[in-house]
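Incident review: delayed structure delivery

Summary: a single-chain prediction request sat in the queue longer than the usual turnaround. Root cause was a stuck worker, restarted by the on-call engineer. No data loss occurred. The affected request and its eventual output are reproduced below so the record is complete for anyone auditing the incident later.

Affected input:
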Amino acid sequence: MAKDYYQILGVSRDASQEQIRKAYRKLARKCHPDINPGNKEAEQRFKEIAQAHDCLGNPEKKKLYDEFGAESLKAGFDAERARQFEEWTSARDESADHGWQKFGQYQSYGDVFGDLFGFSKGSEAFRQATVSAGRDMEYDMTIDLMSALRGFETQISMQKMQGCPECRGSGTDPQSAPTSCTTCGGSGQVEVAKGPMHFTKPCPQCRGKGTTSKACSRCRGRGQIQGTEKIKVVVPQGVRDGSKVRVARKGEPGFGGAPPGDLYLIIHLKPHPFLERKGNDLHMEVPITVSEAVAGATITVPTPDGLARVKIPPKSQSGQALRLKEKGAVDPKTKTKGDLMLKLVVKIPRTDTPEALHAAATMDKFYEGDVRADLKL
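Output delivered after worker restart:
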């Protein structure tokens, strides 16, 4: 049984987005793998927290989750299209029992224009009316900031419509021989008006082919089936939150031999406990000791490219910024790199021992005047 995301974050079902965000940040910082190295339980807990926030922190996803539960989180799930597909299937099956496949009064939009302008089966206009490219699809992908900075290759599984492997998308039984259409007599056209103005339209029984065949038993004549496809995707280095990554020809399959649509990965970034991206620059707070601030020092700090040695100038103040050039994020378009900005944070020992208090009192003698003299409102 799928775990309840509200229970994972410890919030009520009517929690606001701000309450959800605060609960996530508090739990994520507590269970982050960098803070709990080697703790598999904390790592698994962090993944669950991230998944819960990815769902509930997105108002649209939260709405679907509240309505459909975990089913709405499956790749490619679309509530409205699912309802439409079921209605279409039901109507198609009902009309197929009577030998006709209707789209309102007509089989397709091509029939409407055929009524008006008498398109012939071989015309370019008729071909465009019966052939349609597959629709583009979107896939929400939530990744951590470090993966976004470095780029990676992975594989995703999506539930989507696919060309029927039994009939190769034709919708007809490959074992049955085509026969001349009894409705149009094999012409592929039927008359819809007589008199001075003569109109024809593509035959709705054979779809303008002039022949009919037994419907494929697997796809029931649709030419497509619902399935799961594993897709190899490459997320480029430096993608931002909200970026769209195009995967060509991995959308819905087309009809009538038309090409499939494209798949677009919608990138969502998890907050990092220490790094924050602003433009192409990265910002990070770096704790230093009192002696390192006063006397200066050389320390080691982590960067997306590995460890780096940083020189702390003497007399550094808390909040002072240092810049590491070209240690930031890569711009996906220009391929240039931003900088890593380090904000120094002087940490005071958490102790009340006599030695520490005496040392602090001794340092007070070296302040030049009142440190709050310029603090005015």
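Verification: The first strand starts at residue 137 and ends at 144.
Action items: add queue-age alerting; document worker restart procedure.
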